[in-house]
Specification:
The protein contains eleven helices and nine strands. By secondary structure, it is of the alpha/beta class.
Length: about 270
């Protein structure tokens, strides 16, 4: 594990926005909540939910599993209802604002769990990473970032060469924002919920670059971050479109570099 990301003590909760503060005042329903942002995932979501639910039952804390439906036009919502009706403990939240970042933000800001995180619907990151993430959270880390690139990570099926080349360019363009973090784009991140509510309440990026903004804002607020090496396998069916989404990512990164609170560091 990369232990080089230690930061100063957490900021004051006074930075909570009224919306985020309202949710933080609600009673806790579980210690750990796992969010699955989903957009048109009817074909693989059921298997993912059953795998996650089965693993969560073995964890030594109370848990919750929730799908955030990001405006799907297929039967993603019906799939969740079917899985829940069969006895698997899973709930559904809708998010009409498009973009994975919007779905994750909605999930975090409405969570009442002590710790909240998300994993992708394709379950490219091994479910066993949940054990290590929980251990790190219980030991005081506020932000646990799954990484496919730090020492100890295992790639069973790497991405195609073009995607790897694009990823290298992306990391070069985001170096100032991400700092020592090796992998901002792994779809496996877990948080101390109260500590990151201000981060997600301020989130301005809803597309694929949202992870970069989350990492940058967590760094700016001095949250205690650590990278967790994961076992990861490339899955077919990615919703990322290199031309259309690549342009949007470029625009989002240009805008993030110009945000004053990220350039100067958010007040703590």
């Amino acid at each position: 594990m990369n232990l080089s990301l230690q930061s100063p003590p957490p900021p004051s909760p006074d930075w909570l926005t009224p919306r985020a503060a309202a949710f933080s005042a609600l009673p806790q329903t579980a210690e750990l909540e796992v969010l699955v942002p989903a957009f048109n995932e009817e074909h693989r979501l059921e298997a993912t939910l059953r795998t996650l639910a089965g693993h969560l039952r073995g964890l030594p804390v109370s848990t919750a599993l929730r799908v955030v439906d990001n405006g799907s036009s297929d039967r993603t919502a019906d799939c969740v209802d079917r899985v829940a009706a069969s006895g698997t403990p899973v709930t559904l939240t809708g998010c009409s604002l498009r973009g994975k970042g919007a779905a994750v933000a909605r999930g975090v800001l409405t969570s009442r769990a002590r710790w909240t995180g998300f994993c992708d619907a394709d379950l490219a990151t091994s479910v066993t990473a949940l054990d290590d993430a929980l251990c790190l959270l219980r030991n005081g880390w506020q932000v646990v970032l799954g990484s496919r690139l730090c020492a100890g990570a295992t790639l069973y099926a790497p991405q195609p060469p073009a995607r790897r080349l694009g990823g290298a360019g992306f990391r070069l363009l985001t170096r100032r924002l991400r700092g020592p973090v090796t992998d901002t784009q792994c779809g496996f991140k877990f948080f101390e919920t109260a500590a990151v509510r201000p981060v997600f309440a301020r989130l301005t990026t809803t597309g694929f670059a949202f992870d970069v903004e989350v990492v940058a804002r967590c760094r700016a607020r001095g949250l205690r971050m650590i990278e967790l090496p994961v076992e990861w396998e490339n899955r077919r069916g990615s919703s990322f479109r290199p031309v259309t989404d690549g342009r949007r990512v470029a625009v989002d990164l240009w805008r993030l570099h110009r945000l004053r609170d990220l350039a100067e560091g958010e007040p703590t």
